[in-house]
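Sample intake — HDIG domain protein
Collected from: [Clostridium] ultunense Esp
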Amino acid sequence: MDNTRLNHIVSKVDDMPVLPGRIHKIIEITEDPDSTIDDLEKEILKDQSLTSKILRLANSAYYGYPRKINTVSQATILLGFQTIKSMALASTVSKMMAGELKGYALEKNDLWTQSQTCAIISRYIAKKIKITNPETAYIAGLLRDIGKTILNHYVEKEYNTIVNRVEFSKVSFLEAEEEILGFNHAQIGEKIAEKWNFPKDLVEAIGLHHTPEESTIDPKLVSIVHIADAITMIMGIGIGADGLKYNFSPFALDTLNFTPSDVEQLISLSHDLIIDKDSFDLI
């Protein structure tokens, strides 16, 4: 990896919007075992937009609760602290991911739609294999391509060279990024997650979602995001330039004990997971 260039780009990560103080506070409250529902409600109510999104999610078809949820505290009881944390984070990063990324041939909102799809599939897989906190998988899936928002400018300048490399040398877009720029979007995403002081397992899942076999902290989490990412691309969601060549890592499949027919089932199920526009567009 070209460290000089990587450091130059990482210095650009400083231009990345920091997580707003309120979001940090909400994450802090959800992580503190001594926090109460009242503590969380007080913080959420300071943000009108987040309050309305949480109430909409609690009342969506996805949860199918028989009576109307009118307060944040009722919604928190129904959704749980971890889901509230995911929503707070998602409502912030959706703004960062909403723009057009010419370097990746992604239209306005494409990266967001793709990231939300990957997040929902990641959470589903995590629940299916019964990992302790499926919301960690949701957040990892949501942020796995956050590095593209920073690399976009550099990729745009080298776009033709990268695409030619992909077409004529039969390498993946990720490998071409690395060859031509000296680093790839997953590595930049990892740096952003570190900057945001995320736990090491989350940082690793973002940095290694294309190379799960390199995982040392939580191979299951990295494998979940890898598979959800590949399924998102296979479904053609906001595919962009780098969706041209996607394979499932044998390591990821082995780690999760998935057979090819499990994956086929997941692909057809994934269409149903994202069809509920209410749940999908809430953030």
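Post-analysis note: DSSP finds 17 helices and no strands in the chain.
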